[in-house]
Structure formats: structure tokens, C-alpha cells
Design brief:
heterotrimer; A: Aspartate Aminotransferase, domain 2; 2 domains; C: about 325 residues; alpha/beta; five-stranded mixed β-sheet; three-stranded antiparallel β-sheet
């Protein structure tokens, strides 16, 4: 039985203050017209009205991570010779991601399979992941582009969250599903949550039915995409792509990166930074050869990775949580959900045609 | 928390010998600075390593010395990009980072008792070299060995000492070719796929292994198909832009396979199932 | 809204070209998308309305095909600039101009409807009606213009082969163009730095601004990703981000046609065009030059002159 609690709305800031005492606390804040995860500060403009523009991915899978630093040293007995010293730092502070959405939490689970649950785990991601608690807010309504229910998720899906919050009329109903989450609910601020279960359940159910289903499958990742290998389909769809990285950088599940060295005089560091499979140079080889030189090939690879290649490796799980950010913020409004719907449907002439 | 080594952290090694193979290709023999690391190091023919020049970056190269000769690890580096340029500036005694071994290897156990046909172009002989030397060191296990190897000019042929030695083996057939006529060259002239066609080796009890520039591989694969080699008897080793070397960073995939982790060695039968993004 | 006339022209033009680039409805009725027409069957989906925001001329320099393109007044300035810089072969381009009375900043609409999924969109005398699960919302088009439309001087394309409808004249005073920048320049240097640091802090280096820009023609060979030479770090520091945007802006000196695509493409709501407008104002003050107006012009920084006679000070 999961631990539940109730927090009156007026006590939200008090709770956040308590959480921020022992954690690095990230909360969604409104800045200009943009919602961003930022370090909590009581002065900031908290915003739970809609999902953040970018997912909280960077808090665990940092957009720029130092892999190690290096130091060149002259050998005292032979100054002609230099030796190299490498230093890694895998210490991370306890962190909370607060107010993420269920699709954001699921994003981390999708990355976990590749970065943690494997023979060669990524120590940086794992280090931050283990130190992070995720407190999500269930979505009361769907937003433009949302399609979580078509990819195995839902607006109140608990998967990946340590605590799921549901906004009620006068407060929040909280439900812990992990020990980490339960520990945070042992706070005098909270009231007993048991009498609010029904109210919360009704709100969650109402939203579930409102989410658009561009394609419906019982086992979404296990059904074939009949048109996937039609290159003419991709050419037509890839025409308007401008090869930027907005879709991948906003995405809660994209995890490609680049590794580069940065050096100043006798010291330097090797860093890894997000990279995007939509960029031309992503696969460009030093010889000038590029296995994916055209935009359409890269779009095909991105969709293929999420809906075909990843499910093939990870038991039918789709590497997309349906958050809709890539659709909402694509400069040319490419809709991955419509693309996938068309791949499943031979009858649809063009991606954005509706039946 | 963990006693497994950080997969991104290279071991430091020292360059012990540099061999000028061609005007643009040099081979580097390296040994790990830490004696324990050197002693415990093991790998399989076909596996690759990432070489680091700190401050410049990393690039992937096959370990082209065989596991049967562990005094050093050898990598051959063609000067094409910034990392390879930096490696070419190294001298004997310089330090280099090595992350190895990475990736899969040639199925040399399954090749036992079979005839082996190697087809290489340019620096593509590097991964074949490790297996050729391994097989020569375990000669009784394998049948006839045929090597078709070509480069643009005689100057661009790698491992000239090895070639000389292989030529002297009575149980190795070495067929060398260059793209165009060259003063003093009395061997074959023509592209590797064309020569393959002329030589027309029999597919019977034979495994073909090929590596070279993407365009050469493409035509060699077609040529082998014409000679009735079955897809599962054709093996190639691929090169891609790689960064992490452990199947995470995403750039070297062909469909759901990562060349760095699931490869670089693939049979044509495997590749047929994936998008043609070679 | 002229869609029928547009379809008629496109039907006529299509046989002469490999592709016609226009607009069609995207994943919902609020989002128009670029539409690449290669067969007559595609023509039916063509639309023209204030949601047709993209600058389609941007696709031309890398297309390598004979193409017709639908352009608004602002978009046409990109074509003029391409002609100045010889980035397109004019003979391979058929320009279908549309006199425009202003487009919609879709983000403003999304804001007004609380980002709810859109069920239906209709237009009605200067208003847009949007139906969502919360009911119908009526918004005045005049409240939804992006900044570029509020000061637009060229609602009718400056170059075209076909014009859809009658030319329209601007009712915006010419001095309105620079107002935003002049106002901004009144701030102290420290205030401006603080402003940019805050804005660029949001930048995720996705390069949407660069790739949506019609004049950022290096694209796949941009120096911010180059490792050889290694001019920029991939780090996310404010300094690196500012550096990228400064490079972007400086490469557009005397070239930015102020179509606002960079602002529109930015997923983080950064007013990236402001830097470029500031540089453009400098170009105007010093050289009396405005990019994208006359195909015969040459941007002063693309013309070498030892005497510098093309500066305002040196002009007779």
C-alpha cells in the first residue's frame, strides 16, 4: 500500500522550503513566457500551469558533463617528457526534481535501460540518478501535441515517479511509490491523504480520456510499421525539416551525446555534451563520408530509433513518452505522432491528412 | 559504490615505435604505462580501441597486432581529421590514452577448418592484418588463405614488410593490385572488386572477410554475391564516426545495432536486416 | 483568403518547375506547415491565411531544383538578398508573391488558450476563433501580430513573378522600424549585458534560430561545431552561448532581412532577432544601407573599398 498524504495549497511554499534545505531543488518557473526548471528560490515565479518548455532531462543527464580533467606534468628528472594525470569527479549532491510531469519521469526510465541496466553502465548518469528524487504532478488536462496514452503512458502514470501529486480544489493529493518518496512524506506539514483518494482518482481519469490518440495500439512497440522502409515517404516528410536540434534537446528520452576536449595551457577537460541525430555533422566522418547525409535519412533514424530500434532491444518499450514537446516547438511543426500514425497506415497519403 | 572501471577513462600508454606505412598512414606500437594493465590486457582479433590525444580528442582504431603477440598493441592511423593529425605529431616516448578493447571480434572459432578469403583496400587491411597474423600463428586450424589487397598506388600499400613475408608463405596466396599503372609495378592493375571478379575464388567451404573504403565494400559485396558466396559467409568490419565506444552516444548505429558495441564485425546476413546506412 | 487564386496560379506554375513550396495545414488547424508540391494532387491542400508564418524562401539556396515559392513581403526580402549575394539563380526560381496584412504569432495564441489542444480554427473579420476543450475563444488578429508585422514596411513582396491579389501599402511609419532598438539602446551597457545574460541563459544551443534563418547559409558547416579549427567550446556557459549568438549576428551584419524566423523558431522564447536589428540599425546609420530591398544593391561589407566612400561620412 502506497503512502498517501494531503497538502493544502497554502502550504506548498513551506514544503518547498523544507525540501530545499537538504536538496538541490529544481522547480518549474515562469520566465518571460517560458517555463523552465530552475533552482528553487522563494522569490521565483513557480508555474504549474503547463509542462516546462524543455524537459528536466538535463538535471540527471546533464547537457554538459565533465568526464574527467587532465593535467600535463613535466617529469622532474626528464623535462623533455610529459606525463598525464586524469581526474574524475563522481560526487553529486542530493537533488529533487519537483513538478515534472509523468512523461518526464518516464523519460528517465527509458534512458535507464540504456545507461544503467546494461553491462557497461554510465557512471555519471547513474551517479546523478541515484541521488535524485522525482516528484511529479499529474496532468489535469492534455496540452497541444500530447499523446502519452498512445505510447504506454498516461497523464497520471506513476512509473518513474517517487511521489505523484494530483492537484485538487484546495490542495494536493500525494502518493509515494518508492521508499525515497515515502521518506519525504514524513513531514508534519501533511494531513492524512486517505479521504482524498476518490477526488484525485476522478480528476486523473477525466484527463486520461481527453488525451488525443493519434494511433492506438494495445502493445504499441510490438506492432510493425509497414511503411518504415519506404524512402519516398521519408523524403516527402523530411523536406521541410530544417535539421535543428530543438526536437532532440527538448525531448525527455533522447540521449545522444558528443565528446570533446577543452584545453587551456597545461590543463584541460574532456566533456560530453548533448548532440542531435538531426544535425548533419552527427555522423559525418573525418574522411568526409557521411552515412546519413540527407535530412530525410536523419528523420527516419530519429523516428526509427524511438519506435522500432529501441523497442526491438528493450522488450517492445517505445523510446518516446508522448510529451509532445517536439511537436509543440518544432519550427516547422513536424509531428512525430502523425508520422508514426502514417507509418502504421498504408491508406494515409500524407502525414498530416486526417481520416 | 562501484568497483567497475569508469568506461570513459582511458589508460595511459607510451608510444614505443612508429612505422611509416604510407605518406598518410603511420602505425603506432604502444604499451600501457601500468605494468599490471599491460599484463592483464587481453583482446580478440577485430576488436577496436579509442586512442586519445588529450586536449584534441579521441578516435577509433582497430588493434591490428594479433592477440598472439602481446609485447605491444599496434594501431594504424591515417591522417584525415584533427585527432589523427595530432597522433601523427607524436614521437616515440610520448603519452597517449587508450580505451580498449571495445566491440566484437571476428568469429575465428567458426572459421576453423575453412578456407579464408581476405579482401582489403587501403588502410582497410588493418583489421584483416590482426586476423591474418592470428591465423598464421595458428596455421593448422585453417585452410588455404587468399589475400586480395589493393591501394591507389604501390606507395599506398600498408604493411609492406608483412606483404613481403606473406608472399613467401607457400600456403598463402597474396594478390596485390593498384588502381592505375605505376612505374616499376609489375603486378595487377585495377580496382579491388574488379580483381576479385578476375580471380573468381570459389565459395566452396570458404569465408570471405572484407574491409576497405565504403564504396569498395559495396562493390566487393556485390561481387561476392555474383560468385555465389552466401550472406552468412561474408564478413565485414565497419568503420563509423564513434564517440563513446560503449553503445550510448548514438551516432554509429545501423538500425538497432551500434557499430561500436554490436560491431564492428558483421556478417552480410546481419547487415541485410538493417537500413543501408553504411 | 486568396487560397483559390493561389491554387490557380500554382496549377499554372507547377508544370514549369520541379517543386512548388507553399503552405498546408499541419497537425492541427492552428499550425500551418511548409508544403512541397510535386504533383497536381498536392495542390488541393494548399492554404493561405495568417497562420502561414514560415519564410519559405529559406529552403531555396540548398534546394538544387527548379522551384516556385510562395512568399510574403517580408520573405521576399530574403530572395532579394539571395540575388544580391548570388545565392540563387533567379532563372530557377518562380516567385509567387502574396500581399500580406500580417501573420499570427502562434505562441501568443497558445498562451491565450492555455496550451490546450486545438479542435477548430476559423477566421472572422479581423479575428481568429479557436475552439478547445475549454470552449471557443475569439482573439483579435491585431493583438496577435509578431513584432515584425507591427512595423512592416513591405507588406507586398518586393520581387515576384505572380502576385496573388492586389498590392497593399503599409500604414506603419518608417521610423517605427527602429523604435524597439532605439528604446533598448537607452539602457546602460550594464543593463543590456544583464538582459542578454538572462535571455541567453535559456539557450540550449539547438541551433533552431540558425537553421531557420534564411541568411545563415553556412548551416551544416557552421564554425560553432567545427573542431578543426576548434574555435568554440561545446560548453553551456553563458559566455559560450553569447559567443554563438554574437557570431550568428555578426555574420548577418548587413545581411539580416528581419523576417523574425529566428525568434519564431526559438523553443526557449529568446528574442534573438534583437541583436541583429541592433546591428542593422548600425549599418543603416553608418552606410545608409538596408538589406533585402533592392536586388541591384551590394551590402557595404561585401564590397571592398580602400577609401571607404560607401560610409555615410564619406558620401559626397
Amino acid at each position: 500500500m502506497a503512502t498517501t498524504a494531503y497538502l493544502p495549497k497554502e502550504k506548498m511554499k513551506d514544503w518547498l522550503k523544507v525540501l530545499s534545505e537538504k536538496h538541490q531543488l529544481f522547480v518549474p518557473c515562469l520566465e518571460d513566457d517560458v517555463v523552465l526548471f530552475q533552482l528553487f528560490n522563494p522569490e521565483k515565479n513557480l508555474c504549474f500551469d503547463r509542462p516546462a518548455n524543455s524537459s528536466p532531462k538535463t538535471i540527471i543527464f546533464s547537457q554538459c558533463e565533465q568526464l574527467f580533467s587532465f593535467n600535463f606534468k613535466k617529469e622532474p628528472d626528464n623535462p623533455q617528457k610529459t606525463s598525464i594525470e586524469l581526474k574524475e569527479n563522481l560526487e553529486y549532491p542530493p537533488t529533487i526534481i519537483f513538478g515534472a510531469r509523468p512523461c518526464d519521469a518516464k523519460g528517465f526510465m527509458i534512458i535507464d535501460s540504456v545507461y544503467i541496466e546494461t553491462d557497461i553502465a554510465d557512471p555519471y548518469y547513474r551517479g546523478r540518478r541515484e541521488k535524485t528524487t522525482i516528484i511529479t504532478l499529474s496532468c489535469p488536462v492534455p496540452y497541444v501535441g500530447c499523446f502519452c496514452t498512445s505510447v504506454g503512458g498516461g497523464p497520471a502514470d506513476k512509473a518513474g515517479s517517487d511521489i505523484l501529486m494530483t492537484e485538487l480544489e484546495k490542495g494536493y493529493f500525494l502518493e509515494a511509490s518508492t521508499e525515497k518518496g515515502e521518506a519525504l512524506l514524513r513531514e508534519p506539514l501533511f494531513e492524512d491523504g486517505s479521504s482524498y483518494i476518490d477526488e484525485a482518482e476522478n480528476i486523473r481519469k477525466a484527463c486520461y480520456t481527453m488525451v488525443e490518440k493519434p494511433f492506438s495500439d494495445d502493445e504499441p512497440g510490438k506492432k510493425p510499421l509497414p511503411r518504415f522502409h519506404e524512402d519516398t515517404f521519408w523524403e516527402q516528410e523530411g523536406n521541410r525539416c530544417i535539421s535543428c536540434g530543438a526536437c532532440t534537446y527538448l525531448c525527455p528520452t533522447c540521449y545522444c551525446f558528443n565528446i570533446t576536449d577543452e584545453q587551456t595551457a597545461n590543463t584541460g577537460e574532456r566533456i560530453r555534451t548533448w548532440d542531435a541525430c538531426m544535425f548533419h555533422h552527427f555522423t559525418l566522418e573525418a574522411s568526409g563520408h557521411n552515412p546519413r547525409p540527407a535530412k530525410y535519412g536523419r528523420l527516419k533514424n530519429r523516428v526509427g530509433h524511438k519506435f522500432l530500434y529501441y523497442p526491438e532491444k528493450y522488450n517492445g518499450v517505445i523510446a518516446c513518452s508522448g510529451c509532445g514537446r517536439c511537436i509543440r516547438y518544432c519550427p516547422v511543426s513536424i509531428s512525430i505522432s502523425n508520422v508514426v500514425a502514417s507509418l502504421k497506415d498504408n491508406m494515409r497519403e500524407s502525414v498530416d491528412d486526417k481520416h | 559504490m562501484t568497483n567497475i572501471k569508469n568506461p570513459y577513462l582511458p589508460d595511459i600508454a607510451t608510444v614505443t615505435r612508429i612505422i611509416d606505412e604510407t605518406p598518410t598512414i603511420k602505425s603506432y606500437q604502444v604499451i600501457f604505462n601500468d605494468q599490471e594493465t599491460m599484463k592483464n590486457f587481453s583482446f580478440q582479433p577485430g576488436q577496436v580501441g579509442q586512442l586519445s590525444v588529450f586536449g584534441v580528442g579521441e578516435a577509433t582504431f582497430v588493434i591490428n597486432s594479433p592477440p598472439t603477440r602481446m609485447e605491444y598493441l599496434q594501431f594504424s592511423v591515417m591522417k584525415v581529421g584533427e585527432v589523427t593529425k595530432a597522433i601523427h605529431e607524436l614521437s616515440v616516448g610520448d603519452q597517449i590514452g587508450v580505451r580498449a578493447p571495445l566491440g566484437n571480434w571476428f568469429p575465428y572459432e567458426e572459421m576453423k577448418g575453412k578456407k579464408i578469403l581476405f579482401i582489403g583496400g587501403g588502410i582497410g587491411l588493418a583489421p584483416l592484418r590482426t586476423l591474418i597474423l592470428y591465423m598464421l600463428d595458428n596455421r593448422p586450424d585453417y585452410g588455404d588463405i587468399t589475400i586480395i589487397y589493393g591501394a591507389r598506388t604501390p606507395i599506398d600499400l600498408c604493411y609492406k614488410d608483412d606483404l613481403k613475408e606473406w608472399e613467401s608463405h607457400s600456403d598463402v596466396e597474396l594478390i596485390l593490385t593498384v588502381d592505375t599503372e605505376f612505374p616499376g609495378w609489375d603486378k595487377r592493375v585495377g580496382f579491388v572488386p574488379t580483381v576479385l571478379n578476375e580471380v573468381a575464388p570459389s565459395p566452396e567451404n570458404t569465408i570471405a572477410i572484407t574491409c576497405g573504403p565504403p564504396i569498395m565494400i559495396k562493390y566487393v559485396l556485390q561481387g561476392l554475391a555474383r560468385l555465389n558466396f552466401k550472406d552468412d559467409r561474408i564478413i565485414t568490419t565497419l568503420e563509423k564516426r564513434m564517440k563513446c565506444g560503449i553503445g550510448l552516444c548514438g551516432r554509429c548505429n545501423i538500425g538497432s545495432m551500434y557499430v561500436c558495441k554490436d560491431g564492428p564485425v558483421f556478417s552480410l546476413a546481419q547487415l541485410r536486416e538493417y537500413p543501408s546506412e553504411i | 483568403m486568396g487560397s483559390e487564386k493561389l491554387k490557380e496560379i500554382v496549377s499554372k506554375v507547377l508544370p514549369e518547375v520541379d517543386v512548388v513550396i507553399g503552405y498546408r495545414q499541419g497537425f492541427d488547424q492552428l499550425h500551418a506547415i511548409p508544403h512541397f508540391i510535386t504533383t497536381p494532387e498536392h495542390i488541393d491542400q494548399l492554404i493561405w491565411n495568417p497562420l502561414c508564418v514560415h519564410n519559405l524562401a529559406t529552403y531555396l539556396p540548398s534546394l538544387n531544383k527548379k522551384a516556385a515559392v510562395v512568399v510574403k513581403g517580408c520573405d521576399s526580402k530574403a530572395i532579394v538578398q539571395y540575388m544580391q549575394e548570388e545565392l540563387i539563380n533567379r532563372e530557377n526560381v518562380v516567385i509567387i508573391g502574396i500581399p500580406c496584412t500580417g501573420v499570427i504569432d502562434v505562441n501568443k495564441v497558445l498562451h491565450a488558450i492555455n496550451y490546450r489542444p486545438v479542435k477548430e480554427v476559423t477566421f472572422e473579420n479581423g479575428s481568429i476563433l479557436i475552439r478547445t476543450s475549454e470552449g471557443q475563444k475569439k482573439l483579435l488578429l491585431s493583438d496577435l501580430y509578431p513584432d515584425k508585422c507591427k512595423t512592416c514596411q513591405y507588406p507586398t513582396p518586393l520581387v515576384y513573378d505572380h502576385l496573388v491579389g492586389e498590392p497593399v501599402k503599409t500604414d506603419k511609419p518608417p521610423e517605427s522600424v527602429d523604435e524597439e532598438v532605439r528604446e533598448f539602446e537607452k539602457k546602460s551597457i550594464a543593463e543590456r549585458l544583464a538582459y542578454w545574460e538572462k535571455e541567453f541563459d535559456r539557450c540550449i544551443r539547438c541551433y533552431a534560430c540558425r537553421n531557420a534563418c534564411p541568411m545563415c547559409i553556412c548551416r551544416d558547416k557552421c564554425i560553432v561545431e567545427s573542431r578543426d579549427p576548434h574555435l568554440m567550446s561545446q560548453k553551456l556557459t553563458p559566455g559560450e552561448k553569447l559567443m554563438f549568438h554574437m557570431i550568428h549576428s555578426l555574420h548577418l551584419t548587413g545581411r539580416c532581412i528581419e523576417c523574425g524566423e529566428c525568434d519564431r523558431a526559438c523553443p526557449m522564447g529568446i528574442p534573438v532577432s534583437k541583436l541583429k536589428k541592433m546591428i542593422n540599425l548600425g549599418m543603416k546609420n553608418r552606410y545608409g544601407y538596408i538589406p533585402g530591398i533592392n536586388p541591384e544593391d551590394k551590402s557595404p561589407l561585401l564590397v571592398f573599398s580602400l577609401k571607404g566612400e560607401n560610409t555615410e561620412e564619406q558620401k559626397p
